[in-house]
Amino acid sequence: MPVASDTDPLVVSSLAKDYATRLGFAHVVGAQIGLAAGELASNCWRHGGGGRIEIRTVEQGIELRAIDQGPGIENLTHAAEDGVSRGRRHSAASPVRDGLGAGLGSVQRLMDEVEICSYPTVGTTVIARKRRRDRAG
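Below the sequence we write its predicted structure tokens.
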């Protein structure tokens, strides 16, 4: 799915949630997957100037892949901290106005596995997976 406008993250979120529930994920887990997909799409739009989200079935569950050709992420560890947006930490003295700075951290908490590859001037790819668990686990 292309991410080419500020409304696309809502569409991506809804489609990911529906797809996850059709795959047999519980509704709450489907909502978590949808939220993660929306956050990834939002990051593609806000920080990468657009991109695409791929949603696919993998052997043990579902995989989200967010791909952009933006400026890349300079410090991945710092970027995943809550309160950091565009490489800057939110504070009363210097608020960041374009987001809460919780997107990547939220994706890491909502999904079971997250891989991030980012290169300056090439772009960023985030791969997030959620494993399907049986009713007992």
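The radius of gyration is 15 Å.
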